[in-house]
Amino acid sequence: MRTLIIVIVLAVAPLAVAQPKNMPKMDPNNPLTSSMKMGFDRVNGFITKAADLMPPAEYAFKPSPDVRSFGQLIGHIADASYMFCSAAKGEKKPSLNIEKTVTTKDGLKKALADAFAYCDAVYAATTDKELTTPIELFKMKMIRFNALDVNVSHDNEHYGNIVTYLRIKKLTPPSSM
């Protein structure tokens, strides 16, 4: 009986701790930053796939005249990524003004990828201990955590806008695939 229990435990144990293949692993030494990084990766994966999905001609699409076009929305996300992540890093924000200067799908996808890569490096280099490092954002004193957290929230907010744009164009958002 004891041998049978050992065999069952050894056979089932790997299943109990298995994670889906694409699931990032939590860093036990930095659970807060690795958790934020997982949220960052998730929403930015959706935004990147949405940017791929929208046809080039539809980058000028506005559901209403008083809102950003799809392309401007992608540019805005890129600009804001630089703003939040440069603040978290303690650097001056690059003056790229992507939302107003880049108009093509290819140009906006590249700008978005570059902005996400910049932020990716900031998230990857930040430890839980560094989350309390004082920074300045919006001319206010805060901690690094705030900039990284607001970046993820901002991306999620605008992914919600992107979903609406895609649905109006009869496209399935990446988060629904």
Describe this structure in words.
The relative contact order is 0.16. This protein is mostly helical. It has a domain at 68-170: Up-down Bundle (Four Helix Bundle (Hemerythrin (Met), subunit A)). The chain is globular, with a radius of gyration of 20 Å. Helix 2 (31-53) runs parallel beside helix 6, helix 3 packs parallel to helix 5 and helix 3 packs antiparallel against helix 6 (144-168). 62% of the residues lie in helices and 5% in strands. It is built from six helices and two strands.
Could you tell me the mean pLDDT? 88
* Uncertain regions spanning at least 5 consecutive residues: 3-21
The overall strand count is: 2
Distance between the termini: 47 Å
Give me the strand/helix succession.
HHHHHEEH
How much of the sequence lies in strands comes to under 5%
| Annotated CATH topology of the domain at 68-170 | Four Helix Bundle (Hemerythrin (Met), subunit A)
**Helix/strand/pairing category:** mainly alpha
* Tally of contiguous helical segments: 6
* Largest sheet properties: 2 strands, antiparallel
State the shape: globular
Helix content: 55-70%
CATH architecture of the domain at 68-170: Up-down Bundle
Fourth-tier CATH superfamily name of the domain at 68-170: dinb family like domain
Give the strand order, joined by hyphens, for the main sheet.
1-2
Rg value = 20 Å
What's the level 1 CATH class of the domain at 68-170? Mainly Alpha
